[in-house]
Design goal:
Elements (H helix, E strand, L loop, with lengths): L1 H17 L19 H16 L8 E5 L6 E5 L12 E5 L17 H9 L5 E5 L5 H5 L20 E2 L1 H5 L9 H11 L4 E4 L3 E6 L2 H24 L8 H12 L3 H13 L4
Bound molecules: zinc ion.
Zinc ion binds next to loops.
């Protein structure tokens, strides 16, 4: 039995090699799920630039979208500052975060964040990972990040913390392998946002605009919460029920900020 378990992968690779045509992707690479509507890739490019415009990402951070025709594939830029991303930089991955057609391109070390969350959350189609600065203190403090206005009602579901030491001991804090990606997905559980201690956060949504909206307003809420704390006195946060009602209402109207953000982001020349 052990022999077969050991041999099976190489037999599989041999079969793949035998059926490969010249010019095919690299040996053992996952198959593409096929082309998608260019509008989806345009939205992904726009998302990269919007997140930079809104101060969520800087030279680091990334955003992905699941392949609409195959839930086992997703799209993510090659390793590049988000503000510089164009359609030509978008790569397709399987959920183990292997590239379909690498062509020598450098990949984000932390792409496992995306693949492992897509595995764990079938209803999620877009993921933002950032080091958005106002949120970072809440990942290292025992003061919880809580929604204080209607725009961030989605935070009322609670914001879990990913403690990388529990999963990986001493690390460089980066989610650089599938095991750490799985542990992060477990910490996120069924929530829209998770803090990553000493690092940043991850935000998910059913669509690109929703994930971007949540990433932007997670950052804004963190900034406002620090200001409210600095005022002194007690703070009245949203009740969970208020948060749910506000989130449901806003989800129906995010097309409005999204169109504005997208138009500005795509109209501007790249730096
Ligand atoms: Zn990171």
């Amino acid at each position: 039995m052990a022999y077969f378990l050991h041999r099976a992968p190489s037999l599989l690779l041999y079969a793949t090699r035998a059926s490969m045509a010249p010019g095919s992707p690299a040996l053992g690479a996952p198959a593409s799920a096929g082309p998608v509507d260019p509008a989806l890739i345009e939205d992904l490019v726009a998302a990269n630039r919007i997140l930079a415009d809104q101060g969520v990402v800087d030279g680091y951070g990334h955003v992905s979208v699941r392949h609409p025709k195959n839930p086992e594939r997703y799209f993510l830029s090659r390793s590049l500052a988000p503000e510089l991303v164009t359609a030509a930089d978008i790569m397709e991955y399987d959920l183990d975060s292997n590239p379909v057609d690498r062509r020598g391109r450098t990949m984000y070390l932390e792409r496992f964040i995306h693949g492992e969350i897509y595995k764990a959350r079938p209803e999620i189609n877009a993921i933002v990972h950032s080091h958005s600065p106002a949120v970072v203190p809440f990942g290292v403090s025992n003061v919880p990040l809580r929604p204080l206005y209607h725009m961030s009602g989605f935070l009322s579901e609670g914001v879990p913390l990913f403690e990388i030491r529990d999963a990986g001991g001493m690390t460089d804090l980066l989610v650089r392998n599938p095991e750490l990606g799985r542990a992060l997905a477990q910490s996120l559980a069924d929530k829209p946002v998770a803090l990553m201690r000493g690092h940043g956060n991850v935000v998910v949504g059913s669509t690109i605009p929703l994930a971007v909206y949540r990433a932007v307003y997670t950052e804004v809420n963190a900034r406002l919460q620090v200001q409210a704390i600095m005022l002194g006195g007690s703070i009245t946060y949203l009740e969970p029920e208020e948060g749910r009602l506000a989130a449901a209402n806003i989800a129906a109207t995010i097309g409005r900020p999204w169109e504005l953000w997208k138009r500005k982001a795509l109209a501007r020349e790249k730096p």
